[in-house]
Amino acid sequence: MAQSLARAGRFDEAIACWRQLEELDPFSAEPARMIAALTLKKTRQTDREDADDSTEDSRSTPANDGVPPENVSAPAQLESPSMAEAPRPLRTLVLTRRQQLEQEIANRPHEESNYLELAELHLAERRTYDAQRVLMRAREVSRDVRILERLEDVNMLRAKEQVKLAEERAATERTKESRDEVERLRQESYRLELDVFRNRCHRCPDDKRLKFQLGLRLQQIGSYREAIEPLQAGLEFPDLRAAASLEIGEILQRHQQFPKALQCYRQAAQMAAGDEGQLDCRKRALYRAGVLAAAMTLNDTARGYFTELAKMAPDYRDVRTRLDKLGEISDTS
């Protein structure tokens, strides 16, 4: 049908058909190639029609019906064929960068850089579904690891977007079914991230930054004991050290190793100090240290952590309430 519409010059309808086919079969390169080709044909036809209109206008200029030129009035002379407006030149065909890349992919389907650039254009416009389809098409023709890892990134991003949409629906509907759907999608997102980082660590077994990321995903799904060893890999990097110490502290606290956990929180707060990029990590470490110290009845220590946190962020969670409670304990002791 799309081809029949194209032959009839109904390019918009033909392009719409090919877009539907593209959605049904995102792995096929044919729809993208035809969309790019039809866009070119449509633009060229529009240019020809504009040129034909200009020529017709020049031919339809009123004649003088045999009246000698000297008897022709001034307006008639201005409308004579010799003085008619010249045909307008054809417009220069200008494609958007996205259309150019689609055409390049259709012409050279094995050129990986075109797929990557097109995917980035889609991502810049928050069109994650289109970016995902482009990278899936690229995987059909290339084993380039850059494409694989970018597709993994986009898949994780898409999963997070679906969780966010489900959370928004749940906030509106306020039903058990909608809350269950949020949890289901969240767990799917966690499992996807875990699989991605397991595979990346398998491809690059010596990359300790990837090991740290794997540790975060293991912790995310509740595999705490398994997470400790890869999380420790983050201690070797200055920019990850504070976060790694904080996460290890939380796992140690879960296993009731309270003194070691408190030490990890203290170290995390110290290592994050003075770095604006790790401000959130420092606040979280101070809060966790204060809560744990209070539970261990180390009230002066807890008060110190909460006081330092309150100076940085007075409205952080319930830090003011906790300080007030510690003050009451001090007054009655």
Short description:
With 333 residues, the chain is mainly alpha-helical.
Q: What brief labels describe this structure?
A:
333 residues; Serine Threonine Protein Phosphatase 5, Tetratricopeptide repeat; 16 helices; 75% helix
Report on this model:
The chain folds into 3 domains: 1-45 and 93-142, Serine Threonine Protein Phosphatase 5, Tetratricopeptide repeat (Alpha Horseshoe), CATH 1.25.40; 143-236; 238-333, Serine Threonine Protein Phosphatase 5, Tetratricopeptide repeat (Alpha Horseshoe), CATH 1.25.40.10. It has 333 residues and is an all-alpha fold. The model is unreliable at 71-78 (pLDDT under 50). It is built from 16 helices and no strands.
Strand content: under 5%
Give a short account of the largest sheet.
Answer: none
Helix content: over 70%
CATH class division of the largest domain: Mainly Alpha
Number of strands: 0
Kindly identify the CATH topology of the largest domain: Serine Threonine Protein Phosphatase 5, Tetratricopeptide repeat
Q: Give the name of the CATH superfamily of the largest domain.
A: Tetratricopeptide repeat domain
Average residue pLDDT:
87
Distance between the ends: 86 Å
* Secondary-structure class: mainly alpha
Cα Rg: 33 Å
The count of domains is 3
The H/E string reads: HHHHHHHHHHHHHHHH
Q: Helix count, per DSSP?
A: 16
